[in-house]
């Protein structure tokens, strides 16, 4: 390759191993700005800037996966069970506008309003809202409904049988709004809840209200630019009159680690800001002081293993999440709603303490400027409950791809109808 002072977009794309679309996006977002060729106004890249980017992200250039896609028109979502906005931020980053968000928790609602004063936050119990006025106003309905058992009498479950559950409320909203696509999000355990009957019931209810459910998948956040081993079950329903196949976002090849969450690098352009955080009680601190990075309770002397683990010691199973210290060179284990919670300790690699609020937020890929309102424990809860923003963004691209295909197809058939009428 001839070395010169500037490279074209295609050349930069080849050198960096990133698609042209990614480079355009990086330019638009300011992540990696291009200069402009004065006559053609095409993007050009300075040689030394390309070289410094290669030094900064040597591994990333191997990641050839890019789910980015530009929406053909404005798409809107009604986001239910919105929490502190993890999924909503991700969808917004992908280019989908939030028409409204429902959430019952007053602190989470304050978080949403503080950060996005223009978002329409519907505060209160979902049961008290009628969503019919969002019909024809949004293309997408999303929601991470808390999982509850249905009372099941062996028959095929219908919408009315699910009354009283939060899934019922999700399905009711979908029925009222009739979006082109709906996305439910839940814990991986939903697959095996009540031996799979709960999920089966949800699929049959969505079928009854006019939605075909795409084969359910559990997405691993580590495959979607999230430095955390979190997994989320995704339930996608496509309105039955639509003949477009929904495809899950492609998993990335690059896996990010704790160092990428907390230090300046590819995911964040600065080290994690200082913030409040909770502490371990003295006894737990003494135990965790003995654990090396990437280690867990098995690294304790045998007597301490027995006394710390109590009955769990004899129960078998790895329990590798207990008394765990995360290493810099691995993704974090799944964050929970409370960082000092028994049996799910995720200790900082160098200091014997839980992650701070801002470290928690980084591991969930929330931007540093996203403020959380409420006490420290309320903030941890909002963050621990969230869909990681980067996973939400990748899901967003998959939805945009689906909607783009739908509108290009329906515009084409409209064009052929008007052409036929004109002949
Ligand atoms: C798993 S969290 C959702 C997280 C969110 N999608 C995010 O990405 O940040 C579930 C949310 O449902 C909310 N919720 C529970 N019951 C509700 C109800 N009856 N009405 C509205 N929201 C409810 C909870 O307060 C919680 O914030």
Automatic annotation (TrEMBL):
The lineage of its organism: Bacteria, Pseudomonadati, Bacteroidota, Flavobacteriia, Flavobacteriales. PROSITE patterns: C5_MTASE_1, SAM_MT_C5. It comes from the Bacteria. GO terms for biological process: DNA restriction-modification system; methylation; negative regulation of gene expression via chromosomal CpG island methylation. This is Cytosine-specific methyltransferase. The gene is hhaIM_2. InterPro entries: C5-Methyltransferase (IPR050390), C5_DNA_meth_AS (IPR018117), C5_MeTfrase (IPR001525), DNA-bd_dom_put_sf (IPR009061), HTH_17 (IPR041657), SAM-dependent_MTases_sf (IPR029063). CDD domains: Cyt_C5_DNA_methylase, HTH_MerR-trunc. Its EC number is 2.1.1.37. Residues 6-55 form the Helix-turn-helix domain. Keywords: Methyltransferase, Restriction system, S-adenosyl-L-methionine, Transferase. It catalyses: a 2'-deoxycytidine in DNA + S-adenosyl-L-methionine = a 5-methyl-2'-deoxycytidine in DNA + S-adenosyl-L-homocysteine + H(+). Transmembrane segments: none annotated. It holds the Pfam family HTH_17. Belongs to the class I-like SAM-binding methyltransferase superfamily. C5-methyltransferase family. One of its GO terms (molecular function) is DNA (cytosine-5-)-methyltransferase activity. The keyword S-adenosyl-L-methionine applies. The active site is at 147. The keyword Iron does not apply. It is an enzyme of class 2 (transferase).
